[in-house]
Amino acid sequence: MVVSHSGKRLPAGNTVFRLIFLRKGQRLRSLYLPARVELFERVFTLRQTVRKGDTLRREMLEQKELEITSLPEAPIEEESRIVGQIARRTLTAGTILTPRCVQPPYLVKRGEAVRVEYQRGRVRVVLQAQALQDGTRGEQIWVKNPLSRKRLKVKIVERGLAVLP
Question: In which band, very low, low, confident or very high, does the pLDDT at 7 lie, cut at 50, 70 and 90?
């Protein structure tokens, strides 16, 4: 008997396998067998509920062998890619951690002073502004110039530093 399926990867979820019955190389019969394939993997989950914006720490994590068949994306496989990150939304205890669950920590927080730099050729302008939003590296946020009271869209470079794009 030979079992085959189309595609390079083993299918997950509901699928159909083709069974071919052979005798001495001769095909006797083919059957199509509906089946449910469940994938299990050792994954990182949360021991406790974590609120949106909280920093994830090592003691909040545990590893378990769980079914991941219906996960919308692959789980995070390395602890180092979780610890120090912040929760994008409130995550309940037992949540399997995927890249959609976490984000890098904020380098600028709303209300903080931000140094804004603008450079064109040999001219460089530096001003202090107030962050109107939280922001991570590479993200664009709004800041307010306290002197002119104008809002500017800036790109976060590092802690407390942004540039005008």
Answer: low
Residues 56-81 have a mean pLDDT of 93
3-class state of residue 79 by DSSP: helix
Cα separation values, 127 from 12, 19, 81, 83, 98, Å = 55, 71, 34, 34, 38
Domain ranges of the chain: 2-37, 40-103, 113-163
The answer as to CATH 3.90.1210.10 being correct for domain 40-103 is yes
Fold classified for 113-163: SH3 type barrels. (2.30.30)
Q: Which residues pair with 142 in a beta bridge?
A: 153
pLDDT value at residue 12: 74
Rg for the chain, CA atoms, rounded: 26
Higher pLDDT, 126 or 9: 126
